[in-house]
Amino acid sequence: MVMKIGAVAVMAAVIGSGASAAPASLAGDWDGALAVGAVTLRLALHVHAGPQGLSGTLDSIDQGASGLQIPSIEQHGLSARFTVPQVHGAFSGALSADGDRLDGSWTQGPATLPLEFRRHPVGVPEAKLSRPQEPVPPFPYQDLQVAFPSPGAHATLAGELTEPRGPGPFAAAVLIAGSGPNGRDELVAGHRPFLVLADYLTRRGLAVLRYDKRGIGGSGGDYASATTADFASDAEAAVAFLRSRAEIDGRRIGLLGHSEGGLIAPLVADKDRGVAFVVLLAAPGVDGARILEAQGAAIGRVMGVPADKAAQAQALNARLFAAIEKAGDQAAAVAAAKAILTSAATTAKAPPGSLDQAAAAMANPWFRFFLSYDPVPALSRLRCPVLALWGSKDLQVPPDENAPVVSAALSHDPDVQVEVLPGLNHLFQPATTGSPAEYSAIAETFDPAALQKIGDWIERRARR
Q: What are the residue ranges in the chain where pLDDT is below 70?
């Protein structure tokens, strides 16, 4: 659950109502809370009355998703319904007689959950995310908006370079984000871990470059067709940009990659022996198919998925991954994925409306590369200092599956530290179960002890 940005709209079911008195208008601000397993997500609904009727926006406060458009809201008597196209979600319910409560249900994908909204009291401040680690100006360092060419993307990438005050030359790090359409701050679940990392490391004397992925934010280029190897070429361009600047010491530029960024950093350092150090955070050590298998099993366990359902999902994924890897090209991969999904949907009597979209997503260039890419060869060729960290409660890149493989691959590197940090999740937050559903509810963006470990390690290796 819940707010998956960029999904397609679904139709809400109509709930009838038989009120005879003229109901209150829905126009105004509403507060809601959606229980998703052990996590409660706060919602804010803003309804506006205009010439064309009611419309509005929805905020998922704890996920950092705001201004989700609601093109129209239907109100017939006391019944009400609306869809949120960006997140494949729909609400249907009924207004209370006094007009202050809206009771109903939220539907998203296969899940339908009870959801109640109450009118937001006039004069009471709206609920906001608690993100105490996010830095606020004024900063004790320079914060520069930059742009640099990426020949591989045939585009210019936009980013942010934070530098200590003074003439330099400074040691520097390039931050490489994980999978998905990430901007420079690696926004996830309302957290900006790269913003927090850049601030912390720059305060310790390191210049830090973070950038929007190609086709995202201020960067040009095509995101949809890019693979991990393409994103590696963009990281190479980021290193070249830093080397072109007089205030940066070109001999002391390192890479810090998180999740998929932990696949990319070794690819770059393997080609460029001038890279001074590599930090891998929650980096995969096995191919994508094994990552997703372990991830699905781990998340299913903490979410309480019944064993038989989990086994069915694992078997379906295994068939899909094998068919996609075997396909000779993207068209064949899409066709194979759709055939398997159609069979599964028919067997489970699931609605097949989104099968084309699901098949295309699973067979896109990025996913096909990720499924079969083995990170070990690039890791085994590294000869620069490497710090590799995981959280013990990481369910997305489980450390039991990945840390031993990375450690073995780096065994011939002269300066390596591999460590699993207790109690931390995939984002390096202190966690209860490690489930992604918890990320947004945790106020802390990045564990301070983990930040210090990274900063201390880099400082020792980035000295002149």
A: 1-22, 37-39, 109-110, 345-354, 464
Long-range contacts of 297-303 (CB under 8 A, 24+ apart): 298/395, 298/398, 298/434, 299/395, 299/396, 299/435, 299/436, 302/395, 302/433, 302/434, 302/435, 303/37, 303/435, 303/437
Contact 17, 79 (CB under 8 A): yes
Packing angle of the helix pair 288-302, 365-372 (nearest 10 deg): 90
**Are the C-beta atoms of residues 9 and 23 closer than 8 Å to each other?**
no
Query: Residue 64 to residues 151, 219, 385, 430, 446: CA-CA distances in angstroms?
Result: 33, 22, 36, 19, 16
Helix 365-372 × helix 307-326 angle, to 10°:
100
What residues have CB less than 8 Å from 245, skipping those under 6 apart?
A: none
Q: Work out the number of other CB atoms within 10 angstroms of the CB of residue 380.
A: 15
Q: Which residues pair with 344 in a beta bridge?
A: none
CA atoms of 337 and 321, how far apart (whole Å): 8
Would you state the pLDDT for residue 17?
34
Distance CA 376, CA 408 (A): 9
- The residues with which 5 forms a beta bridge, in sequence order, are none
Amino acid code (one letter) for 426: H
Helix pair angle (288-302, 399-409), 10° resolution: 150
Say how far apart CA 73 and CA 54 lie, in whole Å: 5
Indicate the pTM of the whole model. Answer: 0.81
Report pLDDT digits (tens) over 400-425. 999 999 999 999 998 999 999 999 99
Are the C-beta atoms of residues 186 and 177 closer than 8 Å to each other? yes
pLDDT given at position 57: 95
Please give the DSSP secondary-structure letter assigned to residue 224. T
User: In angstroms, how far is CA 13 from the centroid of its own chain?
Assistant: 30
Q: Using an 8 Å Cβ cutoff, are 275 and 268 in contact?
A: yes
- pLDDT at position 310 is 85
Query: What pLDDT sits at residue 16?
Result: 33
DSSP state of 134: S
